UniProtKB/TrEMBL annotation:
PROSITE patterns: PROKAR_LIPOPROTEIN. GO terms for biological process: Gram-negative-bacterium-type cell outer membrane assembly; protein insertion into membrane. It is a lipid-anchor. CDD domains: BamD. Part of the outer membrane protein assembly complex, which is involved in assembly and insertion of beta-barrel proteins into the outer membrane. The keyword Zinc does not apply. It comes from Paroceanicella profunda. It comes from the Bacteria. Part of the Bam complex. This is Outer membrane protein assembly factor BamD.
C-alpha cells in the first residue's frame, strides 16, 4: 500500500506538472495577443521588409482583429491589402482592399485600395488563348478607380493599365480571327476583326485588324469592303507596314484603297475620315 501511495503521489505530481506546462502555453498566447497594437504593426512592417509578405499580411490582420477601433486598425487594413498583393495572394489582397473601402470610402487611401483591387485582377491576366474573365474584372475595377478618384495619381496609373488590358482583349479577338482566316473561315474571321474595329479601336491591334479585313474581303470577292478597309487604314495608319501590305494587295488586284459601297465599313469611313457622325 505504501508503494501504491508513493506511485499515486508521483502520478499526481506529474499530472500537475503537465497542467502547469499547458497553462504556461495559454498564458504565452494571451501575452502575444495582449501586445500593444504598435508593436504588432512594427513586427508586420519588419516582416514585410524581410520579404515575408504573407506573414506581414497576417500580422496586419491581427492588428485589425485585436484593436478594431484604433487608428492602427485603419492603417493595418490598407497595409494588409498591400502585403498580400506583394505576396501574390490576390484574393486576400482584394478582400482586404474591399474591406477598407467599406469602412473608409472617402479616406485619402481609398483610391489606392480601389487601384489595388484592379491590380489584383490585372496581374492574373493570362495569355490571349485563355478565358478572359479576369481581364474583364480588371477593366471594371480600373475604370472604377478612374471614375471615383479622377484627380489622383492612381486614376492615371489605372488608365494606363486599362488601356493595356483593352489591348489584351483585342489581341484575343485578333488571335481567333487569324486562326479563322488561316483556315479559310472568312466570315467568322471578319466578325472577329470587326469587333476589334468597333469595340477596341483605340488599341494597337486596329491597324492589323483593318489589313486582315482587306485580306478576308478580297478572299470572298467583296471588293467594295476591301477597298474601304484599305482607305480607313491609309487615313489612320499610312506609315504602318500593315497599310503597305494592304496597298500592295489591293493594287495587285487592280484596286485602290478608297471608300466604296454602302456597308458597315463605309459608315466607319464616313465617321472617321469625313467626320459625319451619326
Amino acid at each position: 500500500m505504501a508503494q501504491f501511495g508513493k506511485a499515486l503521489k508521483g502520478a499526481s505530481c506529474a499530472f500537475l506538472i503537465l497542467l502547469a506546462g499547458c497553462s504556461g502555453g495559454d498564458n504565452e498566447q494571451v501575452t502575444q495577443d495582449d501586445r500593444p497594437a504598435d508593436q504588432i504593426y512594427a513586427d508586420a512592417e519588419a516582416q514585410l521588409d524581410r520579404g515575408n509578405a504573407e506573414e506581414a499580411g497576417q500580422l496586419f490582420d491581427d492588428v485589425e482583429r485585436l484593436y478594431p477601433y484604433s487608428s492602427w486598425a485603419k492603417r493595418a487594413m490598407i497595409m494588409s491589402a498591400y502585403a498580400y498583393y506583394r505576396g501574390q495572394q490576390f484574393d486576400k489582397a482584394e478582400q482586404a482592399a474591399r474591406r477598407y473601402l467599406d469602412f473608409y470610402p472617402a479616406d485619402k487611401d481609398a483610391a489606392y485600395a480601389q487601384y489595388l483591387i484592379g491590380l489584383s485582377y490585372y496581374d492574373q491576366i493570362v495569355d490571349v488563348g485563355r478565358d478572359q474573365e479576369l481581364t474583364l474584372k480588371a477593366l471594371r475595377a480600373l475604370r472604377e478607380t478612374e471614375l471615383r478618384y479622377p484627380d489622383t495619381e492612381y486614376a492615371r496609373q489605372a488608365k494606363l493599365k486599362y488601356d493595356l488590358a483593352m489591348d489584351h482583349l483585342a489581341g484575343k479577338e485578333m488571335a481567333i480571327g487569324r486562326y479563322y482566316l488561316k483556315n479559310g473561315h472568312y466570315l467568322a474571321a471578319i466578325n472577329r476583326f470587326r469587333a476589334v474595329i468597333e469595340e477596341y479601336q483605340t488599341t494597337s491591334q486596329t491597324a492589323e485588324a483593318l489589313h486582315r479585313l482587306v485580306e478576308s474581303y478580297l478572299a470572298l470577292g467583296l471588293t467594295d469592303e476591301a477597298q474601304t478597309a484599305g482607305a480607313i487604314l491609309g487615313h489612320n495608319f499610312s506609315a504602318s507596314p500593315w497599310y503597305q501590305d494592304s496597298y500592295t494587295l489591293l493594287t495587285n488586284n487592280g484596286l485602290r484603297p478608297e471608300a466604296s459601297g454602302t456597308g458597315w465599313l463605309r459608315s466607319i469611313y464616313d465617321q472617321v475620315v469625313l467626320g459625319r457622325w451619326l
